[in-house]
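SAMPLE LOG
Freezer: B-3
Tube label: C17
Construct: single chain, 502 aa
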Amino acid sequence: MNTIKKSDFVTSIADSLQHISYYHPLDFVKAVHNAYKREKNQAAKDAIGQILINSKMCAVGKRPICQDTGIVTAFIKIGSQCRFDCDDTLQEMVDEGVRLAYKNPTNPLRLSVVASPATERKNTKDNTPAVIYTEIVPGNTLEVHIAAKGGGSENKSKCVMLNPSDSIVEWVKKTVPTMGAGWCPPGIIGIGIGGTADKAMVLAKESLMQPVDIDELIERGPANKLEELRLELYNAINGLGIGAQGLGGLTTVVDVKIAQFPTHAASLPVALIPNCAATRHTHFVLDGSGPAVLKTPDINEWPDISLGTGDEVKRVFLDGITKEEISTWKSGQTLLLNGKILTGRDAAHRRIQMLLEEGKPLPEGVDFNGRFIYYVGPVDPVGDEVVGPAGPTTSTRMDKYTNMMLEQAGLIGMIGKSERGDATIEAIKKHGTVYCMAVGGAAYLVSKAIKKSRVVAFEDLGMEAIYEFEVEDMPVTVAVDSSGEAVHKTGPTFWQKEIAAM
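STRUCTURE (predicted):
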């Protein structure tokens, strides 16, 4: 019988969460680099390049890969010949580790978990509780697979109850395009098959903990029908032409994982959960001899990527910009933004809506007339940082507020990630405004373009407050131009045809 000390377990949870906040798994880095080398769409290639540059910067600087540092999920297997030296529950001990990790003063992680989600939605202020799955297994050790999952990818999770004779591949091919680009491809798709609806979802989540090995599988060939299904799904998803960040291209996923479980003869539960470009997970085992020792990866394992700033890249200045100048920008064009922008996301937009509906003025310092807004909830800064990692959040969540912001608040430009809905595209066209896309999964890289930052309103909302950023050469892509042309529509359509032709 091995005794696991509570202090060792809590420390291991905290250390592992800090570790995955700034170190991508090296198998994922390798797979993304392979995708970068293969990519033929320059816009997608540049997006993947930013993801790789950001990854290396985070590994060196030990700062979060993404500003959304996620909700914690832990799969814990407890050996039957293993016990703890305390009476605390597993939930209490895991949450203590989460609390230590997320409130670490050297590398604070964003606190995104809210309690009472159907009603008050109040932030728990320490990112607890974690979601835990446990299993008693033979042996005298404790094994933990732990992940931090961001909302952008988790929100795209799907589950279906198919008939036993239905095609899983066809369902996935129909489903993935409905997910848009808010899950920040290129990433990994986890598929859970069997059990019940709830079991299928857990299987899909757990499958994402497996190593990235699709390139090795392609090279050696499938050894069984499940591996054949993995390859078929991998090729089918990439054949959709969605590409990095939804811009169109050869690689939408760098791997597909499958886990299955026996099910009822009348059922075929299938779950799909994507992991984004900020894939974060690790694994450790405790045997009573001390806390987990997590290996520091060799920084030389990351590729050296540099992004060019050739003639196709346009440097623009936002202070005093006019709609006439914006009208010259074209969908798919790369811009380097300079000047002052305001920020705002879900909670801030709700408050603005309430104020406008009540005929009240916006807070002092909040004037969107002729301005750009950046949909972001940054990590707190440390040391001499102006702001912590500050990548974009999913823009479609702000679609229901867009007409209000353009028509009543006077906004002329928006920056976020992923596509916009049809109604929003029409509103952008009607008002002669623009929507630009920053790369999801490149939060630390983006933050280096922010030279000044201050809270101007709704400070009580924490990371959802309205900030004013002053940016220098912040890289973005014009995703919807003033004529209503949307790169998230044209790009995948073009590259799906190109891939089919190949």
